Amino acid sequence: xxxxxxxxxxxxxxxxxSFMFKNNMYKDxxxxxxxxxxxxxxxxxxxNRMNAYAITATNETNPSFGTYCYPHDVV
Length: 75
Description:
By secondary structure, this protein is α+β, with helices and mostly antiparallel strands. It has one helix at about 10-20, and strands at about 30-35, 50-55. Strands 1-2 form a two-stranded parallel ribbon.
């Protein structure tokens, strides 16, 4: 899921993951999240219990500094 122009909030994301787990919609679930303070998205959910894993760019308090490479280096 790419959301370049929309927002996703932690409670919505966590509810979706919980719903998917309860309805057997995956065996293992991996989320890659690159955003400032992205670690905060999973602060109030036990992903291990749901066979879900999150890889974030940073923790809940630090910014994430992206590196842009040619030809997509327009910021």
